[in-house]
Amino acid sequence: MAGGCFLYSESEMGSASVSSSQDDFPVHVLAVDDSLIDRKVIERLLKSSACKVTAVDSGRRALEILGLGGESINSAFEINLIITDYCMPGMSGYDLLKKVKESSTLKEIPVVIMSSENVPNRIRRCLDEGAEEFLLKPVKPADVNRLRGHARTLQPTSDCTCDDEVASTMGRSLSLDRRRQLSRTFFS
Amino acid sequence: MEVLRLQQQLIELTNSLFQEGFLDDQFTQIQMLQDEGNPDFVQEVVGLFAEDSERILSELTKALEMEPVDFKKVDAYVHQFKGSSSSIGAQRVKAVCVDFRAYAETENKEGCLQALQQIKQEFFAVKSKLEALLQLEQQILAAGGSVPMME
């Protein structure tokens, strides 16, 4: 198989399709915002930029999705980018950023912070803690297009065992063991 | 022709909303996110904004009736309202939120009560105009026309 691995991509309709191009690899974004309106808008913005989106309303819920919440399912390998609001009740976007960067399994996931307030100290703190970017709300389509460039890419490996079985079994029904097997293949 | 008349009305209403500062460019961004796959996006966002705002206004009214007033709570609600009005492009509502926060920060109850009245006025004004806009769009589509895109 020349050219590396097949990469799985899922259309918004939910059906599986397989893409063999590194350029249109699927970007799965985890969006975190306590505001329902902002979640709706960011979700639409991301989807119109061909991203898959999981939108949650708190940092705590975000950590559950990422596999740090004590649940057994580790779906961290699915998330290519985290975009989070800064001001949230309970766990702030900054707290979430810290937790992600302190985690050996999650620290490679790029984190982008959004805020409606332009506070230089806040921006500096977030960037120092490892945030890729700090966006001022409301987020624009141009910002979202740029974010795709930050998304963690899946690197093809020479011992990749992509085949029809992989292509047809990839998806939500994938068992935990099979996912772990695949993530060892895809991540060095 | 009915469609032309409705389209003209829509263009006039939209222009006045922008010229009078009720809406800013963010609303245009919201409109641009609507497409065949998401034909009700603007309506949904407006609906969420209306519901959320009414909840916040009710909480703010209650908070300012307490003795003593918890200004941090007031500020938190206004911050939320500022965020949502900014996200939908409701410029005048957002501007009152800025003043409101200043009053909350200086714990000025009179100022807060005034700002609350003003915010209610601005919110209900932009809400009814947005509803009129959406209704015109529905009427145009029902009459077989297409909704003119603003530049």
Task: Characterize this entry briefly.
The complex is a heterodimer of chains A (188) and B (151). Chain A is α/β, with parallel strands linked by helices. Helix content of chain A is 34%, strand content 18%.
Considering the chains and any ligands shown, give keywords for the structure.
heterodimer, A: 188 residues, alpha/beta, 5-stranded parallel β-sheet, two-stranded antiparallel sheet, 7 strands, 34% helix, globular, disordered N terminus, B: 151 residues, mainly alpha, 6 helices, 0% strand, elongated
Description of the molecule:
Chain A: It holds the Pfam family Response_reg. Chain A: Belongs to the ARR family. Type-A subfamily. Chain A: Residues 28-152 form the Response regulatory domain. Chain A: InterPro entries: ARR-like (IPR045279), CheY-like_superfamily (IPR011006), Sig_transdc_resp-reg_receiver (IPR001789). Chain A: This is Response regulatory domain-containing protein. The complex is a heterodimer of chains A (188) and B (151). Chain A is built from 7 helices and 7 strands; from the N terminus they run βββαβαβαβαβααα. With 188 residues, chain A is of the alpha/beta class. Chain B is 78% helix and 0% strand. Chain B is built from 6 helices and no strands. In chain B, helix 3 (41-65) packs antiparallel against helix 4 (71-88), helix 3 runs antiparallel to helix 6 and helix 4 (71-88) packs antiparallel against helix 5 (91-105). The radius of gyration of chain B is 17 Å and the shape is elongated. Chain B starts with a helix and ends in a 9-residue tail after the last helix. Classes of the chains: A alpha/beta (188), B mainly alpha (151). The interface between A and B is medium-sized, with 16 and 23 residues.
